[in-house]
User: Fold these one by one.
Assistant:
Number 1:
Amino acid sequence: MQYSHYDVEEFCKDAYFISWATSPTPDSDLFWMSFLEAYPHKAEEIQLALEYIKVFRFSENEPDEQDLLRLKHRIWEDIEKPSRPFYQWRPIPYLAAASVILFLLVGFWFYQKQPSTLTYTTPYGLIQEIKLADGTVVTLNARSELKVIENIAENKVREVWLQGEAYFKVSKSKDVKFIVHTPETQVEVLGTEFNVNTRREKTQVVLAEGNVQLISATHRNIVMRPGQMAIVKDDNQVQLKTVQPQLYDSWKESILIMDDKPVSEIVEIMNDTYGLKLYFADSSLLNKKLSGKLLVKDQNHFLENFSIILNANLEKTQDGYLFR
Amino acid sequence: MYLTPEEHLSLWNDFRSGNTKAYAKIYELFAADLYRYGYNLVRNKQLVEDCLHELFLHLHHQKHKLSPTNNIRFYLYRALRNRLLDSIQKQNKFTSEETTFNQAEFTVQSFESQWIEEQVLVHQKQMVVTALNKLPKRQKEILYLVYMKGLSHQEVAEVMNISMKSVYNTLNIALKTLRDYVNISFLKEGVLGVSLGSLVNLFFLPLN
């Protein structure tokens, strides 16, 4: 494979690589994902080359929607009346109506039917392990929903849609991609292990092993390496940092591993996954950072331990608990 | 949102064989993008609109005579550029292309930091942007077409009516500029993927 000897700049000059970086297609995605699988030591060069290419962002002037619409009217009217030598645009009502219909038609034509899916949902406090027909194992965290495309084992692309949090152990399948769709991005892999969390208006992906790629029309492709965490927010900003993956998937064993985790984050997690509402008489406690392990399976047990750690008294309130 | 070469080919063929939906789809997919390119070339909204108008009418009337393509964007970029060139030359006779696009403007964008801890690199980032912006406008047009629009080297050479060699040379100059400003010491450190990545991320701001 010629690419196995490429350096960053050679990638940056390669037309096929550039076309993938600027306008990925299913074929080119598959090619470069497979390349990364076969030559994992090239991940850094590829990541860098993608970053280099990103530098060349030229400013562009966005055309006004109105201008484009007007231009379209001009063109379509000229097409319909080709004999008229000089053209003047007049906003005739029936033309507007016709264009609305045209737009509806075009819109309808673009509309793509969502494939039929199987849906799994979990209530508060329950974790479910799902074995998919292709051998992939998904651990679905509490209060989450996973939609799986029908006949996943026979499809050319294995697709699922996630809301909430799940840990994926994707079975290797030669040349058949596995895609996790989230509101903010899509995670594409061939076979690997990773955690995806879409709670709180962002998608957080933590990669335990292998290669994954984050793809979206609105942010650039991100190639992730093991031990990295990517956070995609709804404004399409992407943050990438190095983390300890086990801190992010210990929920599978109903354990909360804290590594300098602020109390506020633990409160969020308990609310997200167990529907447990925790209040604090002294709000400065929320900024306190904790380290260690907490068992969260048994709620009473958790509350007792948590109040000991925080050195606070526990009171039952109408809908939750108050620490004071 | 991106079409594969096969999809380009079949959409273009549908249009050539008289399918009006395919024609409408081509307008929907490419008009705004053509407008951006055209405006960067001439900085004249009215001229861009007029040329786009003529171009789409021409496509419609001549559809049976057009040649096939597996990259509609390339095809239309080349057509629009030639049309802009023609109409400018008609307005001012005897101008060569060098001076024709004297309103052309391509500016490498400056990017906001999303990495608080990388603030120190902001200065370095500005130097790269400044250096790239100092390149001649034709070289910037080459970089724009290659790295932002994803045209192949051959396609860029054809759109701009220049040699493949000029395209390659420009890429080399641009990559050297980058290399000169990216601190080599980062490359030696294990944190490279993150720190250089973040440095470069500073340049990137989504367009919408």
Number 2:
Amino acid sequence: MKNLIILLILTINFTFTSCGSDTLKYDFSKIKSLAETKALIAKMQLENKDEKVDSTSNFQEITLKGMHYAGVPVKSALITDNYTLLTTDTLNFSAKNLLESLEAEKGLTNIADSYSDDIDFFWKDETENKKLEIKLVNGKHLAAFGDKDYAELTINYKPTYTIPLANLHKKIKTFENQPKYILNIRAYDCLYDIILNDIIITESTNITEFNLNNYITGPNSSIKIIAKPSKSEGSKTFHEQSYFSATIINKSNNEPVQEIVKTALNGSNSIVFDTEFNSILPYYPIAWTDGADLRNDKNLKKKVIALYDKLGKAILAKDKQAINDIFYQKDFEMQQLDFDTNFETARNEWEAYLAIQTSSYKYTLANDFEIEFNDGGKLIYTYAKDKSDMIIFTGKGYDDTLNHYLYQPKGSNELKIIR
Amino acid sequence: MKRLTMLLLFTSLFGYAQIDYKGLVKNLEDITYETDIKAHFKGIPFNEEYSEIEFNDERFLRFYGVIVNKVTFSDSWNGKVINIKPFNENADYEKIKAKLFELYGEPETSERTTRIRYEWETDNKQILLSINLQGEEEEEEEKEETVQGVFKDFDSLTIVLKQE
Amino acid sequence: MKKIFYILPVVLIMVSCSKSQSIDNEELDHFISKLDDKSLEEIKEEMNSNVSQFESFSKFFESSFSNDIEIINKEDEKYEEEFKIDTSGIGKALHQFDNVEFTQTYEDYESQLEFSKNNSDSSKLLDLGEGVSQRFTPNKIYYHDGEVRTDSISNYDVDFTFDESWGKTKPIDSIDITYKVTYVKDYDVVEISVDNPTASYNGGEISLVKAEGNYIYFTMSDTLSAPVRIQGYNEEGKVLDRSGYSNNGVAPGEMESVFTEILGYLKKLQEKLNDDDFENTAEFQEYLKDNLSNLDFFNDNDGIFHRQYYYHGNVKSLKLYFEKDSENREIIFTARNYKPFNENDDLFVMETEDATVLLNNKGEQVITLNGFDGLENIGGNFYEDYNHFYYLNRTKKQLDTLLVYDIKALSNGLIGILPEQENEHYTLVTSNNIPIGSKSFWLLQEVGNIVFGITTDDKHYILDENANSMLIPGVTKVYDKQSDDRIMVSNTDRKIGFINSKGKLVIPFKYDDAKDFEDGLTAVKFNDTYKLIDINAKVLVDTEEDYINFFGEDDNNKRIYKFDYGKKSYNYKGELIEK
């Protein structure tokens, strides 16, 4: 019944207002993409032939009467290919009204830090970013708005990606317990190699925090750390104050999982810490667990080159499906192991691939490289010798390189990127 | 007639979606040691950094009826610390001061030419109100009489809720 | 787009505040002759869009200039200085052109020039006071191919802010320009006011029509020349600041009807054009010539000129200053091409609507590259646009796309190429893209006109134009300035020395700190104090100071060496400056 009344009112109202001069004709709150914005401009153009609205321009300011955002009149709209900027009138509490319409639409959000006197709000979601800047004129603050306070609303419509890689977050499973195993290191004057589950994660580093989840494939894990004298001062022995200690913690609850005993280091030999820990996860990736042992593969070098060549070709051909297929399993497993359901992670990852694709016009492969075998030969990593990396993408004033852990699924004859 | 239909239209269009701003207003004086802050402020966005929770939307924050710009909650060795930042209005200061005097009586007071500090302490809370005063720094002599300084801004308004 | 808007502005200029108070036939002819090379189709198209432009414009005009008469509160009044001739800046103005340069670019078969002053004051022209006017007249253009042009160049604009068209696309080396300043030497003052609304001057009449609040409206006989200045006064005789004005051949109330008349006329023309009433452009021009002068507006025969002024205050009287006697001063200066044409086989780029054309130093088209725009020369035969680098293959007359990371042109004519990445070695090629030299370099650094190739182990080589490399022993760092044939360098111990432009270490590594030379002198630190030395490292002065503050500059922009927070200073000759 109530709906019927609303409908009735709506009809009456529209018959009334559509012949008035300051009707609410163009509602920006209904617009959800650049294409729809263009359509709205076309409509404005059609209905306002005298005003010379140009629907083809990619930067224009429109000041037509009848523009509004969910009922809040908009004085001017600056429309570009990258954003839409709406400015309200300095009348009738427009800032308060616009803030409240946006909060009704998007929910309450924190006041953002601002360098100016404006009060800023941000809303972000998969389709758009909105930024509201409240300009106080005769108001004091949000609890005491003045009638002349106005607002600027900047809207960025995001492209929609249908490619699976950009929508990974929809596939991520969440669990009650989602451990994130982190290796925290405190060390002085030494470098170390870290080998997790027989995979060399890093060599001769002094970085102090490592995310371990990406290299876990089952409930029991082994970790080996080799501490070596830092060669910074040319010495081959440990400094007398050198020490090393490490802890594996579960970052989801900040509880320690395994201590690696604090030790003073001395002598010139590397010191090896070797231990096991419970690496229970609610999800284990297939990863390289079904991979073939590549240690005796005579064609391995060719296969590595073939894989990077395939990647280079896919990028230059701007073959989005092929790029997706090359990286999907890696990105899915890594995001799942992070239990990350944020839409931005997958989107950013995808846009990073797109950036390589749009900026490059050439790729160069390393032909001479060293192969490192991990986890019984199932997982390999390569070190380029004749180039700075395995694959180099070049554009005008642009370069990017890639290098990944590879494996070969059993029954296949092709390598795949897995980390 | 037209205005009426417009009004009806808007109430019907937005009425259901509109946020209940009044219902979200929280009185900071109601908070006790036992209050679960996140539950108490449910629905209001906050920032959390190093286990300090900050609310900064003055539309929802009141302290004895005075509009509050920002409030932070944190835990310390002696209890739950509430840091209140009102807007720097003399009237607000007078109102808060009068209310605190009325509720907790004469405070311990320390007055200088540039600052006044009041401190109240009860079994379960400790309140500190201090403000900066207007005017040039005059001679640093201690004055016997009450300083007739003019309110400049709030220095701090802190409540420590003690565990009983 | 440019073309479409052509007719409208011309008509408007004739309508609105033009300096001459009536339109003479010469101007009309000039306007009509602009249509010479247009086809009827083009004219038709322009006319159609102009009529709709004009319609919206006249709508805007209807209400814009009649309604802001207001009474200004005394405390809101703004005043200005009483008119006087100030000639004090003229001397300086005449000397501001000692180092003028221009940039020459080429577009659509025309040269575009923009001038700038390359001296310390400002790159723009000095402001001259009231009653002073200035004019530039080009006399001679020296083209790079030897041609010297004097004919019909006097109308080219010497503009210090915008690109202006300077005729044919041929590289210019320099231009001789006459700069003439004309200033009012003596003037008459004519006053009209509410009490004395009419005045006679020089056989003409000036009469006040209306004065209300901040607004005043008066007329002048067409025979009178325009005043140098008009100032409004309030009741107390204070000079008011002007906020707006309108000068017109037509009385204020008739403006709208003028627009209506012109619009009606344009519409009639439009109709005729659309009905194909004209055989060709010439016939259309003939028709214009016969008819345009029939318009009432162009026959402004009321004999008076209308002036409306608005002030920041309530205006009661006006003073009109008429020039009685004037004086000129002029100088001739030479402007030089900022980027002169060096190599005789260089080509330069001209953008046209659909292609990039490469021209030689005679302005002849050598290669036309269809579909390219935004091409810029990097050096030699290498070009770039937003997305790519190119090599110009002159024999095949085509651009070859180079898929590389970066291309750097060096002053000795060599080209450095980074094939794949930022952090790799430069490969050297000639300006014809032929690999040259046996070494590749981590960095290429240019100081003065010397090119240094630097390897990853910090070895510095001097590269000549044939990419022969000469190691400079011991040098691990080259500073970025060459002066007095000295370049500051340092070694692995961070001791500073100097090499000459041939790469010879002429002052050994012995200083803890040093500055580059200027006027044959500099400050260096060794044995704990700063010494002033000449270019042969001879110590001229031991300042006995262990800390140098900064360099200052004297009135002639010469260096001052300052020590001990400015308490002890030496001039550029190394003489102690007495307090």
